[in-house]
Amino acid sequence: MSTQNQDLPQHALERLRGLRSQGNPEGVFTSDLSVNEYLLVREAGFEPIGMVMGSSVYHIGVQVGRWGQNMELDNLTQAMYHARELAMSRMEEEADALGADGIVGVRLNINRYEWGADLAEFIAIGTAVVARPELTHGDGAPKSFRTFRNKPFTSDLSGQDFWTLLRSGYRPLSMVMGTCVYHVAHQGFMKTLAQVGQNQEQPNFTQALYDARELAMERMQAEAHEERAEGIVGVHIDEGSYGWASHIIEFFAVGTAVTPLRADHTIPTPNLVLSLND
């Protein structure tokens, strides 16, 4: 086990010592994968070795937007992004301590507690896996499934999707994410009154939500470029307000950046034959 994980609590290190790893083949594995996911991950050529997690309890500051202006709240955006990054990096540290090649089924959760109205706990959790020798030395597969920065790969794909991705000739690199906390401008009383009983678009609100989602998506794509990925799969966008004012909302985009197993890999195009009776 690595001795460089100084950021991990002592009880986490003790738990990791009891898990199955390269230095402890007699340990037990733990996993939050379902039975089907576990079996498919193994069929894909990977062995689950242990659940890993990272946590960060973060104080989220206050930033007020202008009443009648659409605008990003940069301080809140930075807080939400940094807190998730801390949780992710600590989860990766635990995987590194086990000698894992990657982490599958990653979940990012946010919890709030009564003892801190401005505090939130950011949690990253997944199952660390190692590639079996036949994957790392044959069939044109890479010698290591870790990232080019020599970190374990991370993926929020299900076990089924992970298996399908590898069978198609691609592998996960990293979970990539982008966030934007945005203040949606209020609408004046007279304008609201003039629209009573009418069906019509609200351009101010439309533009605000559109812009915020675009910023989150753009930042997620920028992370994929930094990881040297070919694309991002399994993208989803979550929305939340986390106790902020009614006109403040966060858009969070996340997905798994992927790359081909071989530089010359292409996915065959199936021959589609359409019947006149279809």
Describe it:
The protein has 278 residues and is α+β, with helices and mostly antiparallel strands. It has a single domain (10-260), classed as Translation Initiation Factor IF3. It has helices at residues 10-17, 35-43, 74-97, 133-137, 159-167, 189-194, 203-226; strands at 46-59, 71-72, 102-111, 119-131, 153-154, 170-183, 231-240, 248-260. The strands form two sheets. The protein has a four-stranded mixed sheet. The chain has a four-stranded antiparallel sheet with strand order 2-6-8-7. α2 (35-43) packs parallel to α5. The protein is globular. The model has no long low-confidence stretch (mean pLDDT 83). InterPro entries: UPF0145_dom_sf (IPR035439), UPF0145_YbjQ-like (IPR002765). Belongs to the UPF0145 family.
Sheet with the most strands: spatial strand order? 1-4-3-5
Discrete helix count: 7
What is the C-level CATH assignment? Answer: Alpha Beta
Find the CATH superfamily. Hypothetical protein apc22750. Chain B
Overall geometry = globular
CATH arch. level architecture: 2-Layer Sandwich
Radius of gyration: 22 Å
Protein name: Heavy metal-binding domain-containing protein
Family: Belongs to the UPF0145 family.
Pfam families: YbjQ_1
Organism: Alicyclobacillus ferrooxydans
